[in-house]
Amino acid sequence: MPDTKKQALFRPMAKSRFQFLCHKDISCFTKCCADLDLVLTPYDIVRVKNRLQIPSPTFLDRYTETKWNKHPRFPMINLKMDSDPHHRCPFVTPEGCTIYEDRPGACRIYPVGRAALKVDRGKETREKFFLVDEEHCLGFREDREWSLEEWMANEGVDEYNAMNDPWLEVVTSQKSLGKKEDIPRKIQMFFLASYNLDRFRRLIFETRFFDLFRVKAEKIEALAVDDVLLMHFAFDWLKFSLFGEKTIQIKS
Questions:
Q1: In 3-state terms, the chain is what percent helix, strand and coil (to 5)?
Q2: Where are the alpha helices (DSSP H) in the chain?
Q3: Torsion angle (degrees, nearest 10) of CA 183, 188, 192, 193
Q4: Is residue 177 pLDDT above 90, yes or no?
Q5: Average pLDDT, the chain
Q6: Residue 215's Cα: distance from chain center in Å?
């Protein structure tokens, strides 16, 4: 969810239904799209950089900033706000979001917030939901009522959660990163495989990677062109390279 610097109340969802509607005829339209502290996930980056038709290094340089105080071990990527006095999202206009169909998951779920933890593969994600009630937002005065399930489905949040939950296993893992001297290299690998997929693709295709690791030929062919498949392969690689999990097989 967008963590705004504006005054907001975070209300636990004691019941599963809430009242909310946002549209361009409401006077606060797009006010929530400024001065954000919005963390981007790997799937967010895939969707937006492909929407813009630019490679991931260009997207990262132009639209993001790295935050080292958002997580105890790993760097997080924030969407960089414009430098105008209102610090608007770079993709918002008076008419609304220019990348709306591919907007980040935090924008989709708003005004609902989600706190999630996934400790192991095969186990369900533990999650809690709450409402982000900002003083400027008039959407709560509209007469459209939603269940949590209806809202998540309507905004496409379920797809984003399914895409990002394997990465959540990495960032919420309590497993050791190994020897102290290896940690800086592993942090660099985390950044590359999480956020910079085009360079990660170069890493695995322009080195001896596939000589060392067992990957089926048809999957290798698909990894060359399919960013979503590559992203999930990168998650498996992180579990292998950071924690020693047997998510990728070494050739004997």
A1: 45, 20, 35
A2: 42-52, 56-63, 105-109, 148-154, 157-171, 183-195, 197-205, 209-212, 217-223, 227-243
A3: 0
A4: yes
A5: 90
A6: 26
Phi/psi for 65 (5° steps) reads: -140, 145
Q: Kindly tell me the burial class for residue 110, based on how many C-beta atoms sit within 10 Å of its own C-beta (0-12, 13-18, 19 or more).
A: buried
Q: Which residue in the block uniquely carries the two structure tokens 């999630």?
A: 116
| pLDDT, mean of residues 25-50 | 93
The pLDDT confidence band at residue 3, using thresholds 50, 70 and 90, is very low
Domains in the chain: boundaries? 3-171, 180-250
The vertex-150 CA angle with 93 and 25, nearest 5°, equals 30
Q: Output the pLDDT for position 1.
A: 42
- Taking each helix axis from N to C end, the angle separating 183-195 and 197-205, rounded to the nearest 10 degrees, works out to 110
Instruction: List beta partners, residue 10.
Output: 132
What are the CA-CA distances from residue 9 to residues 33, 75, 91, 229 (Å)? 17, 27, 26, 38
Per-residue pLDDT reduced to its tens digit, 222-233: 999 999 999 999
Question: Phi and psi (nearest 5°) for 90?
Answer: -65, -10
Over the range 91-100, which residues count as b (16 or more CB within 10 Å of their CB) and which as e?
Answer: bbeeeeeebe
Q: Alpha helices, DSSP H only, in 37-195?
A: 42-52, 56-63, 105-109, 148-154, 157-171, 183-195
